[in-house]
Amino acid sequence: MKLPNRRILITGAASGIGKATAELFAREGAQVALLDRDGDAVSTVAASMSDARAHVCDVTDHDAVGKAVAAAARAMGGIDGVVNAAGIDLIRDFATMTPAEWHRVFAVNVTGTMSVCHAALDALSANATASIVNLASGAGLFPIASRTAYCASKAAVVMFSKALAVDLAPSNIRVNVVCPGAIETPMLRSGIDAAEDPPGMQEAVRNRVVLKRIGQPADIAAAILFLTGADSTFATGSTLVVDGGRVFH
Predict the structure, then answer these.
(1) Position 195 in a domain
(2) Is residue 99 part of a domain?
(3) Is 150 an annotated catalytic residue?
(4) How far apart are CA 207 and CA 224, in angstroms?
(5) Is 100 strand, coil or helix?
(6) The pTM is what?
(7) Which residue segment(s) compose the domain that 38 sits in?
(8) Is 59 a member of any domain?
(9) Per residue in 87-123, pLDDT tens?
(10) Structurally, how many domains does the chain consist of?
């Protein structure tokens, strides 16, 4: 197993990439603390695993994040790794986007990621092989129309992760970032279904990708596993793009 006895905190764990990552990490021997604002869904996910605990938390609430992370650390006896998978999208033409919508995207995608890292810092610092993996997006490297807030927020996560890797290197905490492409998640599905022509939108998404398919959450979970485990102990400040070839294409 890749993560025997490791204690990993995962946000956005009720669905999509976060859920797939939690399931994979549990199979690889890790204890997992699952954070999500959807209490029923995250509890259901945790109940399906042998060594998982659910914690209800909105990452935009800094105080709630601190309490949830502290509770997770107590329950697991520490934290060896963090995966920040919580995130939201916003499809909106810039001319009609409101400041409130902009701030909400940044509150979840950027400030939420920061809050979780900050809250887990003391626990991570107690380990010699701790790691953080933040989820950004290919949209943070190559723009998409009508997603100014989303693209900007994910670009911020990329640079936040690199800067944090520099700051935490003296504490032996590695920080890396994964940039997924179009992945079959509830977030992607809601965007496609909201389009005027959902089948046409789905085909357009496929055509942006060299491999001509939409990825699966398990594809991203495998990349997160690599950056969390012992196979990547010399990797920090790295950006791993897992998007079927959209960014370079």
Answers:
(1) no
(2) yes
(3) yes
(4) 25
(5) helix
(6) 0.96
(7) 7-183+216-241
(8) yes
(9) 999 999 999 999 999 999 999 999 999 999 999 999 9
(10) 1
Residue type, 111: T
- The dihedral of CA 23, 26, 30, 32: what is its sign? positive
Q: Identify whether 89 is part of a domain.
A: yes
- In the chain, % helix, strand, coil (3-state, to 5) comes to 50, 15, 35
Residues 20-62: tens digit of each pLDDT: 999 999 999 999 999 999 999 999 999 999 899 999 999 999 9
Neighbours of 65 (CB within 10 A): 25
Cβ neighbours of 143 (radius 10 Å): 13
Residue matched to tokens 């797939």: 20
Instruction: Spot the catalytic one: 24, 30, 114, 150.
Output: 150
Helix (H, G, I), strand (E, B) or coil at 184: coil
- Tell me the one-letter amino acid at 33: A
> What gap in Å lies between CA 27 and CA 16, rounded to an integer?
17
In 3D space, the residue among 135, 138, 92 whose CA is nearest the CA of residue 112 turns out to be: 135
CATH code for position 40: 3.40.50.720
